Amino acid sequence: MKALFFGSIGTIVETSRLQYDAFHAAFAQHHLDWHWDLPTYQEMLKISGGAKRISTFADKRNEQVDATAVHATKTSWFLEKLQSDDIKPLSYVGVGLKAAQEHGIKTGFVSTTEKATVRIIALKLVAVGHPDFDIMTHGGLGLPGKPEPDAYIHAFETLGIEAQNAIVIEDNVDGVAAAKTTGARVVGVPGAFAQQTDLRAADTTVASGSDIDWARLLG
């Protein structure tokens, strides 16, 4: 293997509750009488991209909503809370990055979310002693969101790596689909509000990141 990519913010930092609260804070600020109970939110998580989740839910309710504006409010609230020192990278990520370094493998953070969010999370890793990624993607690059594979294709081309020589860690259905389309090997790691079975399209799924055998996976 020549590359290890983390494909979404939730694969690096457990933000499930924070994201959930951010959506409801935005709904309240925009005077939307919406409440996503946990089963509803778990269904929403199968859709990649917060604005897309909002617009999809509005369509189901036959409501006209400025999904972009609502999502911008959600993102602002989320970013403010995300910067708290209490929110730290998941321990398995550091183990994986160290293993990649020992094997001479390049690393990437391949997300299509906002640049500010991507950078905050990357800096959290640096703050606890991990090197920065060899490549990071974000929504500011103008690449189509997942399940389109463009972000991964961009990362592979930039690093000069063939997809079949990459391991991708993903935590959502669209992310798994995007990576699989390129031919990369995908490991599904569900977040706190997701189920392992949701990621069954991945080559391998684990109950949590701590179950990954990095030496075997990267070797």
Can you walk me through this structure?
There is one protein chain. The chain is α/β, with parallel strands linked by helices and 219 residues long. It has two domains: 142 residues, HAD superfamily/HAD-like (Rossmann fold, 3-Layer(aba) Sandwich); 67 residues, DNA polymerase, domain 1 (Orthogonal Bundle), CATH 1.10.150.240. Helices cover 45% and strands 11% of the residues. The chain has nine helices and six strands; from the N terminus they run βαααααβαβαβαββα. A six-stranded parallel sheet has the order 3-2-1-4-5-6, with helices on both faces.
Shape-level CATH architecture of the largest domain = 3-Layer(aba) Sandwich
And the CATH topology of the largest domain? Rossmann fold
Enumerate the strands of the largest sheet in spatial order, edge to edge or round the barrel: 3-2-1-4-5-6
Domains, number: 2
Name the helix and strand elements from N-terminus to C-terminus, one letter apiece: EHHHHHEHEHEHEEH
Identify the overall geometry. globular
Overall pLDDT metric: 94
As an assembly, this protein is single chain
